[in-house]
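Recall that a protein's primary structure is simply its ordered list of amino acids. Everything else, from secondary elements to tertiary packing, is in principle encoded there. The following example makes that idea concrete.
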Amino acid sequence: MSNDHEVLADRLNAEPAIFKGCSSSELGTIVGLAITVWLPLSLLLAWLLGAITMGFGIAGVGVVATVVAFATLFQRIKRGRPEGYYQQWLRIRLQALGLSRAPWVLRSGAWDVGRTQHAPLSSRD
């Protein structure tokens, strides 16, 4: 007898949440950025202290702490919001700072077609 309540992967509309409401691609991005930041910093710190191998341990702890902190932050941002909300929010903020362009019309106010004279309605006018 088949179970009608099975969740089939081909019927999902979005990536499933894996850790604290984050999908695997979001977690991968967080881990990649955390490694990019923590590994050079921890190796530099460990080199200055004279124990280079200790840097890998510091980087590991830093990456885990960063993943937990950012996953918690994303969980708060995403709570009760539609799919892709924070991505749109980030693109709008980047445009407001002048760092990127959002693909949406973000202007509010009166619109004008830019004409100074009325165009004739027919060729006889």
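The helical segments are 24-49, 54-78, 85-96. DSSP finds three helices and no strands in the chain.
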